[in-house]
Design goal:
By secondary structure, the chain is α/β, with parallel strands linked by helices. The protein has one helix and 25 strands. Bound molecules: coenzyme A (COA) and zinc ion.
């Protein structure tokens, strides 16, 4: 008799814990807020701050603890991961993926379809000193359409990363990177040509994965029509 009562009490306890857990899951789902914007809505986690005076395109998602500062422009269908900061004078196109822990500073311009790997670093002052204001000397960094930047890479300001270029994980980019070039290392140097689909190209300059063909002219790679 006593045993059966103990069993029933335990079952009650389990059910109470189960219900509490279910409520927690439901609450964390409801923490995603849908916000009206031009032509539709974008989503943001309730822990993210989006300042007034930002422009954010439809179907963009902004995840936990991120901050978009007043004046920033972000296009459509972008995903900003956790702990992403977007400065007032940063400009992001459409369909950009920014992984966790990335700061996109003033005068960083990112075109459509760019991938920014986790914890990669942009810069905007070439010779910072804490006691000297350099706000009028920010250098522009341009990341062109379709480029990918690997995890933990650093982009020294003032460079242009070409269309569909690829920067290996942990590299430090100090110079312009041509279209379709794969750069790796510290400082980052040319390693191979790379297709728009992300496969390295061999000497034939024809992609074994997607069939795209390229030609080299005066040291630059062009997609064949
Ligand atoms: C660069 C990359 C695409 C691979 O290039 P790959 O040429 O196919 O790589 P391989 O494995 O054939 O390596 C070729 C050489 O380059 C070196 N290498 C590869 N990646 C490198 C990098 N990021 N930095 C420095 N050297 C690198 C390799 O050690 C190897 O050197 P070795 O010839 O002296 O042995 C890949 O290493 C990389 O960095 N990917 C990014 C991953 C990432 O950040 N993802 C983010 C989302 S989670
Ligand atoms: Zn390809």
């Amino acid at each position: 008799m006593m045993k059966s009562k103990g069993w029933s009490n335990n079952l009650q306890k389990v059910l109470t814990i189960y219900k509490a857990k279910r409520i927690t899951v439901e609450m964390s789902r409801s923490e995603v807020i849908t916000v009206d914007c031009a032509g539709g809505t974008y989503k943001k986690h309730e822990s993210a701050y989006v300042d007034e005076g930002t422009v954010i395109g439809k179907d963009t998602s902004i995840w936990h603890f991120s901050h978009v500062m007043s004046g920033a422009k972000i296009g459509e269908k972008c995903v900003l991961g956790q702990n992403v900061n977007v400065g007032s004078k940063a400009v992001l196109g459409n369909n950009i993926k920014v992984q966790n822990n990335v700061s996109i500073y003033d005068r960083v311009i990112i075109e459509d379809d760019v991938f920014c790997g986790p914890s990669m670093v942009f810069t905007n002052v070439i010779n910072p000193r804490s006691h000297v204001s350099r706000k009028s000397e920010y250098k522009e960094t341009l990341v062109k359409k379709g480029a990918s930047i690997g995890a933990n890479a650093t982009i020294v300001c003032g460079v242009t990363i070409g269309k569909y270029a690829f920067i290996g994980a942990g590299s430090v980019v100090t110079k312009d990177v041509p279209d379709h070039a794969l750069f790796v290392g510290v400082p980052a140097k040319f390693h191979a040509w790379i297709c728009a689909c992300g496969e390295k190209l061999d000497d034939t300059l024809a992609c074994k994965t997607c069939g795209s063909e390229y030609k080299l002219k005066e040291g630059k790679l062009y997609a064949q029509k």
